[in-house]
Amino acid sequence: MEDLELAAVLTALADPVRLRIVAELARSGGIVCGQFDVPVSMSTLSHHLKVLREAGVLRVTPQGSYRTHELRREEMETRFPGVLESITRAIVPPAA
Asked: Is the Cβ–Cβ distance between 38 and 17 less than 8 Å?
């Protein structure tokens, strides 16, 4: 996490599809790769997940024959306090 740069995180979060992925992850806590509700092909989704992973925004956890994606909330808060929280608060409506 120490090698991550804020510019890389913000660049990764600048794409509308990636913001939608982050919003889904913020609401759910973790999603299996094929379960994302985004208007792109699987190969494009894989690219977006790779960008978010390389920027340090999410982690991938293998679980048997599938992989779960989840936000790296604690690590991001330690490295860039308030950034991910502010973004997820802005894109995920509060629960009713």
From this structure: yes
Q: Which of 94, 93, 72 has the alpha carbon at shortest distance from 83?
A: 72
Transcribe 82-96 into DSSP letters: THHHHHHHHHSPPP-
Question: What residues are paired with 69 via a beta bridge?
Answer: 31, 60
Closest CA relative to residue 44, chosen from 7, 15, 14? 15
Task: Enter the tokens of residue 29.
Answer: 């806590």
Going from the C-alpha of 50 to that of each of 60, 94, 96, the distances in angstroms are: 10, 28, 32
Read off the pLDDT of residues 11-37 as tens digits, 9 standing for 90 and up: 999 999 999 999 999 998 889 877 888
Cα–Cα dist 8/56, whole Å: 9
Q: Using an 8 Å Cβ cutoff, are 57 and 12 in contact?
A: yes
